[in-house]
Specification:
The protein is mainly α. It has helices spanning about 5-20, 30-35, 45-50, 55-90, 90-105, 110-125, 140, 155-160. Helix content is about 65%, strand content about 0%.
């Protein structure tokens, strides 16, 4: 798994390519960086190796990595804000649906784990003040936190459309 420093290095590499206006130099170090970072953006080894065959496709890979992290971060932070607002207003189900909505579309492992955490805290019945949820009953803890996905689109491709903004 890539460390945060690896993602920072990809940003720096991307900025350098943009400033130079020249193709990406596919050194062993650059390829190793992209190989380490691609899985953290849910890009397969096969896709990564194919992309590393030439500078243009490697640049596209780099862009995909950065784009996935940028979109995932925005989606997660927006939903956390809405979740907290709904929870504070007493709409626990609406708050839960915010994280379930993220889990329905999120492919970046780091952001999936981050979206699962508030739901797992709810399942464990954390009292108010020690987690994002007020205390929950034993009956509500027995259900899967995202068992009800009514109203949520089911196709990941739907969410990959450039025109789609699930949190607008």
């Amino acid at each position: 798994m890539a460390e945060g420093a690896d993602l920072d290095d990809v940003w720096v590499l991307c900025r350098g390519v943009l400033e130079k206006g020249a193709p990406l130099d596919l050194t062993n170090e650059t390829c190793a960086l992209l190989r380490r970072t691609a899985p953290t953006a849910a890009i397969s080894e096969v896709e990564t190796e194919e992309a590393l065959k030439n500078p243009e496709s490697a640049e596209a890979l780099m862009g995909t990595i950065l784009s996935r992290f940028r979109e995932s971060k925005r989606r997660f932070l927006d939903s956390m804000f809405r979740m907290t607002s709904l929870r504070d207003a007493g709409d626990i189900e609406g708050a839960r649906q915010q994280m379930c909505g993220v889990l329905a579309v999120e492919i970046v492992p780091q952001y999936r784990r981050m979206a699962e955490e508030p739901l797992s805290q709810r399942e464990r019945g954390h009292p108010r003040g020690s987690g994002p949820w007020p205390g929950t009953s034993a009956q509500s803890r027995e259900k899967s936190p995202c068992a009800s996905t009514e109203g949520l689109p089911s196709s990941p491709q739907y969410f990959q459309s450039p025109a789609f903004s699930p949190w607008a």
